[in-house]
Structure prediction request, 564 residues.
Amino acid sequence: MVRQALWRAILLTCGLPALLSAAQIDAVVDRTRIADGESVRLELRVNGSPDEDVDLTPLATDWDVLNRSQSSQMQIINGSISRSQSQTLTLMPRRSGQLVIPSLCFGPDCSPPVSVTVSDAAATTDSPLLLEVSPSAQTAYVDQQVVLSVRILHRGDLMQASLSEPTIENGTAEVRQLGEDRRFETRRDGTLYQGIERRYLIYPRQAGPLTLSGLQLDGQLESNPSQVRSLFSSSIRQLRRRTEAITIDVLPPQNAQGRLWLPAQQLALTDDWQTDPPTLRVGEPATRTLTLTAEGLPAASLPTLTLPTPDGWKSYPDQPARENRESQTGLIGMLQQKLALVPMQAGPITLPALTLDWFNVTSNQWEQIHLPAVTVEVEAASSEIGSVEPESSVAPPVSPATVAPNRPTKKEAPAPGNRFWFLISIGLALGWALTGLLWWRSSRAPSNVPSNTPQDAEKDAFRSVLDAAKRHDAEVTRRALISWIRLRWTPHPGTELDTLTHHGNPALKASLDTLNHALYKNKTTRWQGTTLIAALKNLPAPDTSKTTALPPLYPDLPREKSDH
Prediction:
């Protein structure tokens, strides 16, 4: 008997800590009936000290945990210590129906399961939060713009809202947001809602069904701010709204037949020379600006405008400038094409018309935009180019006739008091006579003084070209070239650079093309005149002999060394 009592005491002593450490867990929800898209608060009340933290894995089947908070307290009553804690979970149902919040365990200690009825959101009326999605078209062509409008309607203050982005579940498309969110007010069944609208642009890239994922909105809604808040009477509720997936039927290009596919709502082509044609001058560049505007197409989809260059013109197209503008109906793409045109002959010259095909998505028909031909007047080139003509460095000889002394018209006998001045006058007259005699003899002999010949003027003009090229000044270099070419070859006005190309070599032609490119096409990069200097200094003189080796153009100027 004594031995049995001893064993009972030992077992009781060993099991007492386990009994003392066992925790009691209760599960309480704020509501047992909710609508799909509404949250429920679950409070786990723990009396005692659990061995482990709660395991939330069982919730993943039917519930999303949106928020989690924890509090604990300790009480000492008559020397006895008691501990308790509370964990509050905000849960969002993943589906409607009769759902169960499963048992949640803190190690070996678990809470009881709780049943919650989740009704279909469509069956609820007077909802404080609505999420609506609508595309501008259920059927669209490849590359046609579709505007997806997303509207959030809420009663009360919407806080900490997050909206998912539309994604492509099936098909291929480009999706981008259009502008900023727009706020508005509207009424639904007599109820006033605050609204937020967000728009997306969708450009399908292949024919077939295009499926966009449904959107999801999460947020907190404060429906009655004046209400006294507590755990179960708080006016702030966590809400979720979902939309169904959207499918758009994408059609292939209609009867394109090799034509450029431009599906748009409206297309326009303008030309600044149509309303005010300029008066041009041979050899002088003028800029023509073409602007292509498309409603419903991004600027990147617009083609570069190419115009045929008629005889008597040289064309230097610039890189097109592209710009996108936003409107209430979507995107407006703009392309601006600048062309530097240089007329090469005088008289009226007609620039050809331009026609562009495009597809009207509103009428589902092919249309054309037509830019009429334009005729401009070209004046003859001026025979003088200012600021580049070299000045003569040798002054012309002074003629003695221009400084001949004044001679008396009547001889008078000098007065005795003026005899001294009379002798001085005789000496000056003899000096002028001797000077005239020496000049007459020197004019008959060959002169060794260099004169300002046309060859000297030509050489000075050539130096002006080199000086401008060394400064890498494209505009001044071009004017200096024209001045020098006119002195050397006397070409027809407006054809100076063509004449130089004819007398030059491929290296010189490439250098002139680079100069024109810098002047009329690429104005962002500074032109470098080094290669032009080398090509000009190695330009051969006219072939006046039958020898095969041609002398340099100006032997007294240093030539550029060849890289070979």
In short: The helical segments are 2-21, 272-275, 419-444, 454-470, 474-489, 496-503, 506-520, 530-537.
